[in-house]
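G., the chain you wanted modeled:
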Amino acid sequence: MSKKYLGLAYFTPEKFAAMSPDDVKALVSQCPALDKKMQETGKMLVSASLGDLENWRTLRPRGGKTHVSDGPYTEAKEVVGGLFIIEADSEEEALKIASMHPAATVGEAGGWAVELIPMDFYLGR
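Predicted structure as tokens:
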């Protein structure tokens, strides 16, 4: 029985900002081919890059009301910059597919990394 996995692609804003524009362009230019390789497995259900940090909002309960604030929800060195969901028959297969993601393959200078999380998933269908 297959299981779904959430992949969170992280980056370190300070490291990424310290890269030269040419290095960023060279790094980003590698992403489409790597993304396509993941898609070709037929196991990737969702893949998305997340919007600019300036547009992020955090919602928290405060005094019985929802309080909305700017920015990522935590003070952290790494920030989630993308996500993907894959369906795999084993953890080994999930790791193999996740290792194709650009943040697991390239981008060390930008502090890229992928966290792979097993999911209990329900679509309501």
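The mean pLDDT is 87.

Shout if anything looks off.
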